[in-house]
## 1
Amino acid sequence: MEILLVGCGKMGGAMLRRWLDAMPARFTTVNRSGRALPPGTEHVAGHEALAGRRFDAIIIAVKPQQIPEVMPDYADLLADGGCYVSIAAGYSTGSLANLLNNAPVIRLMPNLPALIGRSVNGLFAGPACADLHRELADQLARTTGMAVWLDDEDELDRLTAVAGSGPGYVFEIARSYIAAAEALGFTAETARSLVLETMGGAIEMAARSDQDVAELRNSVMSKKGTTEAGINVLRRDGQLDDLLRDTTRAAYDRAVELR
Ligand SMILES: NC(=O)c1ccc[n+]([C@@H]2O[C@H](COP(=O)([O-])OP(=O)(O)OC[C@H]3O[C@@H](n4cnc5c(N)ncnc54)[C@H](OP(=O)(O)O)[C@@H]3O)[C@@H](O)[C@H]2O)c1
């Protein structure tokens, strides 16, 4: 199988590293800026170098705003029976099909822990897709993490707002937590290690537990103890709930704008 990857930046590059290890396919990558990319793939500078070639799948990994300018140049490179797989946020299967000769399009929404095989991948197949296309997209997803198929494209945009953008929220929360630890007097290095190990351990424990996370929170709070004192501030006036609801809503609204 011949697969073309258009856009090999942070997200496309992270996924490519996993695909090269696990997928029985040959990957060609468009590498406009000539950056160092993993061995085992053929790199070309642009679509001009691909004249006459055909690919069984073309993966769209440029920014959503770049799609209308970039992707029409790749509309004739899909083999008969092939499909496009887009990892771009928001840009709908309908809009992509309009640019790409009404070819089958699957949207695969990953997140950055694909780098360590822990991506949360949402998938949605456009109307022209066959089982073969779904199987390929499922394999592309599962070699980077978990796969969740959705029947409704709007749900994929909601998943984007929670999981696709989610690592960014987690990094920002961790940054703020580390700054708070530094303000209590720890060095930057110690603060980072205390916070990341605490977050990692607590999240791993919650993921392995059958208990609701609110129950787990209660289980670490004793009456008039230190955790209760901290949690009372964290939950003050429901500000944290409002903030996270507004955060995910803003990301969803942006995905809708990009359709
Ligand atoms: N980053 C995430 O956490 C994340 C999560 C889920 C989904 N996504 C989606 O993944 C896609 C890529 O995002 P990213 O974060 O990886 O962005 P990025 O690092 O900026 O990568 C974009 C890539 O597009 C390439 N590109 C731009 N114009 C091109 C052209 N004319 N021909 C060929 N390649 C071109 C760039 O190549 P040059 O560097 O050579 O210009 C770059 O490698 C986006 O659609 C985004 O919605 C990202």
## 2
Amino acid sequence: MHTLVSATSTSCKRFSIFLLALLLSGCASQVSGPLRFDDSMKSRGQSGRIDIIVLHYTASTKPSALMTLTNRDVSAHYVVTDDKPPIVYRLVNEDKSAWHAGESSWYGKTFLNQRSIGIEIVHPGWTKNSNGDKGMPYSDTQIAAVIELTRDIAKRNNISPENIVGHSDIAPMRKIDPGPSFPWKKFAQAGVGRWFDEAAAAKYEANFIRTGYPDAGWFQKQLKRVGYQVPESNYFDAGTLAAIGAFQMHYRPDRVTSRPDPQTAARLMALPTTGSGL
Ligand SMILES: [Zn+2]
């Protein structure tokens, strides 16, 4: 009996303490003093917000480009000017989205503004034609600045080489920038972006010249493998030809025809799947 009373009284006490604690915690719902953070542990399941870099040309002069990119519904994180030496304007912080990609697709992913960094390069632009004119060359100093900037962004955000692209790569039906005078090979030689295996391409090309280039379904599969958005129609429709043109601007800028041929097929086949895409 005695034991029971004692036990009851103990549990009563415990209950009162519990009530008191509840009251106190109610009173303490407003934190007094700064929040205490602990950064000693990190989750494994996370990835960077930025996983693609898109290069553009402005198709206008520096004053006109800066006016547009600061006052309209179009923007870019960086603008590399054609001054000597070039100036790099930082118009949008990297932790914010800039409005530069528009309707676009890469490795099946869309809404690329949300996950990309946009770089505009001041350049007069190029008019698409078939006589082999690549348009005005980019100056060496401007390209050196773009390489350095792109390399730094890629390194900080751990961006794979295949995800350093031109606007034309992600929107082949609408866009032709940064144009065929953009030196993608020079970029790749500087360790920035992707390039094809030239020895393998030469071998494949010899074969395709002998056998004829593959059919539309083959081109569509290969273009899709390396990131481009293409229809799966099994014929050379407008979307497929536009993607072939975009591929040529990037990997065969000396002859942009937007038509299939043995050399284009060979370079496409020799382009490695360097990462997992987006
Ligand atoms: Zn663009």
